[in-house]
Task: inverse folding
C-alpha cells in the first residue's frame, strides 16, 4: 500500500448525518433503520426514554426521530430533557391525532410532527428539511440586529439577551431569522410556513402560534404585550426593532 506523500492534501468527506430513532415498535424501527441506512445516514436506536436520553448525550445525533408513546415516559418528557442542553432537530412520530397533542409536543420544543400511519417518503422529506433548517446559512448571514431587549447575530446563529445566550431550537431560530431579515415588513402566514417548514406546508397556522409564543417568552420583556413580534390577525407577523 502506498502512503500519501508528505505535505500532499488529504481529501475530506463530510461526515454522514447521524439519526437517533426512538420508538418501541420493532417493525417500525427496523423499517426506519433500513431506509435511513440505504440513504447513507448513520443510525442509533433506543426503545425507551431513559435509553434515548443517554444515547443522545453519548452519540450527539444531528436529528432525532421520536415516538411519543414510549414504555417508560411520555415522549414530551424526552423532548424537554433534550431541550435542556441541545438544539438538535426533533421530528415527532405519533398515533395521536388531536391538535392539542401536536401543540403540546411543539410547545415542548419539537420541530415537526408526523402522524402515524405515514408514508416513508414524506417522513424522509421532513427529516431532510429539519436537518437543513439546522445548518449554517453562509456568508450572507453576516449581520447583527439589535433591539433594547436582545441582539440577534445572524452570522453566528446566536441571540443574546442581557449578556446571556438565549437557547433557541432550530425551528425557533429559522422563524426568527425570516422575520428579522424582513424587519418592518408583514410576512404572511403561508410564506412563513413554507419558508420555515417547507413547500408542503401552508395551512398549519397552529405551528406559527406555538412558535411565536415561544419566541415572545424567550425574547420579549412583556410577552403578553409584544413590542418586537407583532401579530397581524389573519394575515401574518412582523418584526419591529
Result:
Amino acid at each position: 500500500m502506498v502512503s500519501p506523500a508528505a505535505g500532499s492534501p488529504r481529501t475530506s468527506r463530510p461526515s454522514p448525518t447521524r439519526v437517533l430513532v426512538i420508538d418501541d415498535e420493532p417493525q417500525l424501527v427496523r423499517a426506519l433503520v433500513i431506509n435511513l441506512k440505504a440513504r447513507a445516514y448513520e443510525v442509533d436506536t433506543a426503545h425507551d426514554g431513559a435509553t434515548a436520553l443517554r444515547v443522545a448525550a453519548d452519540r450527539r445525533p444531528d436529528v432525532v426521530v421520536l415516538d411519543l408513546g414510549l414504555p417508560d415516559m411520555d415522549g414530551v418528557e424526552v423532548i424537554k430533557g433534550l431541550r435542556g442542553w441541545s438544539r438538535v432537530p426533533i421530528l415527532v412520530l405519533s398515533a395521536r391525532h388531536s391538535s392539542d397533542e401536536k401543540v403540546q409536543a411543539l410547545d415542548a420544543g419539537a420541530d415537526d410532527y408526523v402522524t402515524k400511519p405515514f408514508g416513508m417518503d414524506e417522513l424522509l422529506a421532513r427529516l431532510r428539511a429539519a436537518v437543513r433548517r439546522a445548518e449554517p446559512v453562509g456568508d450572507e448571514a453576516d449581520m447583527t440586529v439589535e433591539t433594547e431587549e436582545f441582539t440577534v447575530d445572524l452570522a453566528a446563529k446566536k441571540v443574546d439577551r442581557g449578556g446571556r445566550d438565549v437557547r433557541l431550537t432550530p425551528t425557533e431560530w429559522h422563524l426568527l431569522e425570516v422575520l428579522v431579515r424582513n424587519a418592518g415588513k408583514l410576512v404572511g402566514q403561508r410564506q412563513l410556513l413554507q419558508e420555515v417548514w417547507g413547500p408542503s406546508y401552508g395551512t398549519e397556522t397552529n405551528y406559527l402560534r406555538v412558535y411565536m409564543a415561544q419566541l415572545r417568552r424567550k425574547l420579549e420583556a412583556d410577552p403578553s404585550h409584544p413590542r418586537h413580534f407583532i401579530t397581524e390577525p389573519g394575515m401574518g407577523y412582523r418584526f419591529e426593532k
Summary: Residues 120-134 form the longest helix (15 residues). Residues 1-13 have pLDDT under 50 and may be disordered. The two ends are 62 Å apart (CA to CA).
